[in-house]
Structures are given as C-alpha cells and as structure tokens.
Amino acid sequence: MDLFRGTSTLPLSFTLLEFSVGYDTRTISRQLFPRILYNRLPDKSKVLERQRVVDIVEDKESARVVLADGTEHVGDLVVSADGVHSKVREIMWQNANKTIPHFITATEKR
Ligand SMILES: Cc1cc2nc3c(=O)[nH]c(=O)nc-3n(C[C@H](O)[C@H](O)[C@H](O)COP(=O)(O)OP(=O)(O)OC[C@H]3O[C@@H](n4cnc5c(N)ncnc54)[C@H](O)[C@@H]3O)c2cc1C
Fold first, then answer.
1. Could you state, in order of their start, the residue ranges of all structural domains in the chain?
2. Is the CB of 31 under 6 A from ligand 1?
3. Ligand 1 near 35 CB (within 6 A)
4. DSSP helix/strand/coil, 43
5. Ligand 1 atom having least distance to the Cα of 53
6. Longest distance between any two alpha carbons in the chain, whole Å
7. Taking the model in full, what pTM does it have?
8. Is the minimum distance from the CB of 90 to ligand 1 under 6 angstroms?
9. Using a 6 Å cutoff on CB, does residue 27 contact ligand 1?
10. Is residue 65 classed exposed, middle or buried when 0-12, 13-18 and 19+ CB atoms within 10 A define those classes?
C-alpha cells in the first residue's frame, strides 16, 4: 500500500491542516482508496456494481430505490454519495417540490 505519512516532507499546508484540525494526514490515490475499502468488506454480496439509481419512491415507512435494470431495493433510509450531478439529489428536490410547491428554487439548484 502506497501511503505517505504527514511528515515534514509534505507541503506546509498539510502541516497547517494538522495544526488546525488536530488530525494527521495521509495521501492516497483516488483509485486505490475505494479498492482498499472494498477488499476489507466482509460481505461483498451487498455491493452492486455498474448500477444506476433512476428513481426513489418514498412512503411513511420506507424508501424504495429503483435501479436502471428494473430491480428495487427497500430500506429505512437512503444515503447517497453520487457526486456533483447527483440523481438522488434531483429526486429529493422533485419530491420536496411535490410536497411543498416551489420549495426548492432554481437558484438553490445552482
Ligand atoms: C479530472 C478531475 C480531477 C480532479 N482532481 C481533483 C484533485 O486533484 N483534488 C480534489 O480534491 N478534487 C479533485 N477533483 C474533484 C473530485 O473528483 C471530486 O470532488 C470528488 O470525486 C467528489 O467525490 P464524490 O464521492 O462526491 O463524487 P464522485 O467521485 O463523482 O462519485 C460519485 C459516484 O456516484 C456514482 N453515481 C453517479 N450517479 C449515479 C446513479 N444515478 N446511480 C448510482 N451511482 C451513481 C458514480 O458512478 C460515482 O462512482 C477532480 C475531478 C475531476 C473530474
């Protein structure tokens, strides 16, 4: 594993970061980090690869996530981390505006 400790060889900003937040710093490749997390997972069967969220249907008890292949997954809570063009955020905005019209404005979506 290619990790670099937050030592004096790192840029000054990392030292300042440690000083201000109180945490040491590690630098790691963006490709490597998810692979390490994945390899450490005890149960990989719960990870669905190459799937796209296309819809989320909520009721008072649960949330149903619909994927592009048509499969559906029901849970208590949806936590998303689907990036800057988040589909989940778009659905969340749509649902909010259905409940309270004009609640999420165009300005807020920018
Ligand atoms: C070329 C480039 C260089 C960059 N360089 C730097 C840098 O040097 N330093 C820095 O700090 N930041 C950099 N960034 C920005 C950095 O990549 C982002 O800030 C960071 O990746 C955001 O992480 P995230 O997890 O929110 O989203 P992402 O890394 O975008 O991850 C989102 C994930 O959600 C998945 N996803 C998207 N839509 C769906 C959907 N509908 N259903 C299911 N899954 C979905 C995607 O496939 C992806 O795996 C760079 C970005 C780019 C494009």
1. 4-40, 49-109
2. no
3. no
4. coil
5. 42
6. 54
7. 0.79
8. no
9. no
10. buried
Ligand 1 atom nearest the C-alpha of 87 is 41
Q: Which residue has the CA at smallest separation from atom 11 of ligand 1? A: 30
Alpha carbon of residue 73 to chain centroid: 17
Tell me if 69 CB under 6 Å of ligand 1. no
Q: Which residue has the higher pLDDT, 11 or 76?
A: 76
Q: Which of 27, 20, 23 is nearest to 4 (CA)?
A: 27
**Token pair recorded at residue 110:** 């920018």
Torsion of CA 90, 92, 94, 95, to 10 degrees: 160
What are the DSSP calls for 47-105, one per residue?
PPPS--EEEEEE-SS-EEEEETTS-EEEES-------TT-HHHHHHHHHHHHHSTT-S-
- Band of residue 9 on the pLDDT scale cut at 50, 70, 90: low
Taking a C-beta distance cutoff of 8 angstroms, is the pair 72, 64 a contact? yes
Tell me the Cα Rg of the chain: 20
